[in-house]
From TrEMBL:
UniProt xrefs under SMART domains: Alpha_L_fucos
Family named by the database record: Belongs to the glycosyl hydrolase 29 family.
Keywords from the named record: Glycosidase, Hydrolase, Signal
Pfam families, alphabetized: Alpha_L_fucos, F5_F8_type_C
GO MF term list: alpha-L-fucosidase activity
UniProt domain F5/8 type C: residue ranges: 372-470
Record InterPro entries: FA58C, Galactose-bd-like_sf, GH, Glyco_hydro_29, Glyco_hydro_29_N
EC number(s) recorded for this UniProt protein: 3.2.1.51
Domain Glycoside hydrolase family 29 N-terminal: 44-350
Domain of life: Bacteria
One GO process term, biological-process aspect: fucose metabolic process
UniProt name for this protein: alpha-L-fucosidase
Amino acid sequence: MKKILIVVLLVASQTLWAQVPPKPYGPLPSPRQLAWHEVEQYGLIHFTPTTFENKEWGYGDADPKIFNPKEFDAEQIVQAAKAGGLRGIIFVAKHHDGFCLWPTNTTDYNITKSPFRDGKGDMVKEVADAARKYGLKFGVYCSPWDRNNAAYGTPEYLAIYREQLRELYTNYGPLFMSWHDGANGGDGYYGGAREKRSIDNTTYYQWDETWTNLTRKLQPGANIFSDIGWDVRWVGNEKGTAAETHWATFTPQPPKGVNEAVPGQANYEDSPTGMRDGKFWIPAECDVPLRKGWFYHPDQQPKSPDELFDLYLKSVGRGAALDLGLAPDTRGLLSDADVASLKTFGDRLQKTYAVNLARPAYIRAINVRGYNSIYGTKNLVDNNPDTYWTTDEDFKKSEFTVEFSQPTDFDLISIRENIKFGQRVEEFAVDSWENDAWKEIHKGTSIGARRLIKFDAPVTTTKLRVRFTKTPEVVVLSELGVYKVAE
Ligand code: FUL
Ligand code: CA
């Protein structure tokens, strides 16, 4: 009787133990960052009087009367973005020229002074409504540098800027991002002064205060983007690419000789890679315009669908996000060429991801945590980011094989870590079964939110193997995809 009891207790304790999930490792994403990771690719719309001046940076002196986009259609822009696979839209509500695209109380330099909708328009609202109608998330960019405002450089301007954020935070529903550019100070119109003004980045904007007391309070779901974070960091270039190895963990670095990194003044050397031992979860956003400039210029052409796919692999495919600049023309529409390029790129993604060749395959892992099916490999192909495969603690080096029922062609593999457990994998390898032996076909480093491995030529095999060769703690993988990229 005693013996039976002991056995029962033993089995029970083992089952209990087997149900304990692994411990998280390192800095972890917040719920708002987790939601941001799921967006993966989004658009950033630049459209102000600067478009009508054919410039990249408006001086702040453009007559609001030139802002007359007679055919403006937020739905055309949003639908094109959606067709391009984008899942969010950030609208530049105010660029450096200071022109506000909503009827603000903070300055006369705003949309009500333009002919658009006879001075009764609110473009922020039109874009927000269109984004929500088509199921895209919405965010705003309100430039701190304001080349129009007479008060720029004084404390009075800071109050104006904060009030502009407050208006944007309270009138347009939940935002998924609040985007802050780093360009600051310099020459401008400044209410007619036409002079150069410089501000001290380290003190002038008091970002801590603006972000904790305004952004967090009024828009708790908004990810704050700036060159150094808080939630999302700049990748350090405007080419749309993260480094081959990308850590979501990061500690903002000050420039040489300075004590503290502040937005607009930092050392960006480690921004493309992040830092393995970074103190915070601050993943990179890779921003790049669809055309050469952020604003529309008639002599420029959009990137081709192939170029977009390549950028996608080098941003989203490295665990970062892609932020693609969209530039309506003076009609207020995206040009046919932009729409076509986006659509071909988006169709390609959609067709590629329509069939996950790993789903019907047999996935055999070297170990499943506690032999418990709640950690089994079926979780790798259930399209649910929460469920995952993981192993017992003594299986830091682990692997699984994907066995197809017949020889299968693929050229793209997608692997996601369950980042709720932190970013863990440091090195992995992929093998394919060829001539009765394993052949290594890829060596990789970081995974994080997602790793896309694209092969130059299709691989044909009956089975493939993924080996995790270096990780400080056991692997926790949420999804695996094996695909043949559509033409
Ligand atoms: C930069 C700005 O200076 C550019 O004009 C553009 O808005 C880009 C997205 O951010 O900081
Ligand atoms: Ca899953």
